[in-house]
Amino acid sequence: MENDAKRFLYVNRKAPYGTIYALESLEVVLIGAAFEQNVSLAFLDDGVFQLTKGQDTQGIGVKNFSPTYRALGDYDVNKLYVEKESLEERGLSVDDLQEITYEDEDDDWEEKPSINIVSRSEMADIMANQDVVLSF
Amino acid sequence: MENDAKRFLYVNRKAPYGTIYALESLEVVLIGAAFEQNVSLAFLDDGVFQLTKGQDTQGIGVKNFSPTYRALGDYDVNKLYVEKESLEERGLSVDDLQEITYEDEDDDWEEKPSINIVSRSEMADIMANQDVVLSF
Amino acid sequence: MSTLHTVNKSPFSTQSLVSCLGHAKDGDTVLLIEDGVYGAISQSGISDAISARATEVNLCVLQPDLEARGVDAAKVVEGVNLVDYSGFVELAAKHSLTQAWL
Amino acid sequence: MSTLHTVNKSPFSTQSLVSCLGHAKDGDTVLLIEDGVYGAISQSGISDAISARATEVNLCVLQPDLEARGVDAAKVVEGVNLVDYSGFVELAAKHSLTQAWL
Amino acid sequence: MKFGVVISEGPYTHQASDSAFNFVKAAIANGHEVPRIFFYHDGVNVGTRLSVPPQDERNIQKQWTEIADENCIDLVICIAAAQRRGMLDENEANRQGKDANNIAEGFRISGLGQLIEMGIQSDRLITFGD
Amino acid sequence: MKFGVVISEGPYTHQASDSAFNFVKAAIANGHEVPRIFFYHDGVNVGTRLSVPPQDERNIQKQWTEIADENCIDLVICIAAAQRRGMLDENEANRQGKDANNIAEGFRISGLGQLIEMGIQSDRLITFGD
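The joint structure predicted for all components is written out below.
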């Protein structure tokens, strides 16, 4: 990563499928990965629903894009922050989310989790510590 | 009014200007008036904001359509139901709303108020007692 | 005379479900569709309020929308009924009126 | 390092303002625009929660949006500052970061 | 039973037109009629023939054109909503002095009266929006 | 100061593009620069030249075309978002085998990289959406 890379945060606060924001946010993240900035993703409020496992969209005739989150590691996008309070309010725990991992090139390519569960106050710190915030 | 007229209720739950629904709802009401059905309008939740007086849109560069509500009486649309609880939750009273009247042809063209403040439970009764509900 | 109410918004984001439940009459059906299906998740911050209404009002959730969002049917609040699109159509036919809480 | 947060939704309809205020840091500015300006009305069901934050956070409301909606400046919660579009621009320039709570 | 359907949001952005499509398919399969669908607000954008969705996604406009053709459904786009949003048929384009039009086969542009008429003539009216 | 602006919602339906316009006008009046505006999601629909708003309403597309022309603002419409929603320029129409295009003067269609680039090159990035 270049020294003058900017810290980019993609903020996801909306549920998938009801609206297109989650999908089109992911499209920005994938394209943005080529720019070698310092990228993080935040999932809070209804955005945490984007990461649930077992999504099956056959019955609604819409493409299931949830597998794409698991590919983020291949694009060197491996900082996914999920807010604990948002999960709890929605009756969810980390067990309801997909497992998303990346291979750490600085640690002998060990497979590590990309999802970090953070408190609301930690999420506020993450948000404050950015150069660019893109909201979806 | 014909005997086989249907009861049409236009339900307004959104604030004006932030989105176009309030304006385009009004356009349906005006066109619909020509069909001589039994028309009522419901204003609840943020829909009560549509009727506030003193709207001045010069600063945002968007057309002020609030005077149109006062013309509804000329189209024989004179049943505007506004939910009391929705007003109160928003710090509003009937004094914050425009005065909207119609001339009652069955009562020597006396000018009467079109706005009826109703309780949530009365609003529920009004909604239940319709043939067609159009939501905006 | 009864009404099928549809709610398509997450109750964690908007007030639509609360407003709908505050206006639905006994004997009406409230059907959760699209992002509205999140209202059927048990042990959430609002699930008690939902199940409290499940006796007077027929609460339903659209299963294809539930599956799309990865919500296991076992996680649905007790008393909420699962329907498919065909069931949605027949609910609309059975009730004399349909109202969308957009 | 501080942030200008914009909120464009009515707090009576959505959770955006609540979520924003729950994440804004002391010294940040929260600017209410578009339908968000309804959050500045005094004596509403949420005005106490708003004014409680007005000491740590700089709460502002966009006056042209307030006027469009017929909300009298005299009705605005105490401690909330009125700004015009020029003021909006300078708030964005003054804070190092801008975040929209859509 | 005769269903009237209102679609208030644009394609892909909101699920409304997908939900309406699944509802209409099921209604027809169950032996009901859907004589007309009225596209209002951003719903008018469903009727553009210029969209090019990714290969692995559904083509919402084509789905409507096909189901309408097979079941004689009248797909009506509101003219007032369409004008604001840049949806035109050939007549409207000529009348407004525009050099192109973008409406798809099977859709027609007409007035809000068609919505009221649908409300009067249908046994049930159902709205899919945001 | 250099502002980058993102517009995420369509014209007339949401206030987003109006708010952005008022913000950009004020920014320029205050001596700031707005080198680029990026239209994403339904925001791409702002760039249609086929819209015919009522006489007594603002013409949102024309407002953008004019302010961009006067201040050298690069109005970029996201290609991926545009394709889904039926927004095409002449090149894209030819490439996709479409018989019409609808993009207005002053707008250009390009990739999402232009959004990231805007984020990198701007001092501040501000989003107007829903």
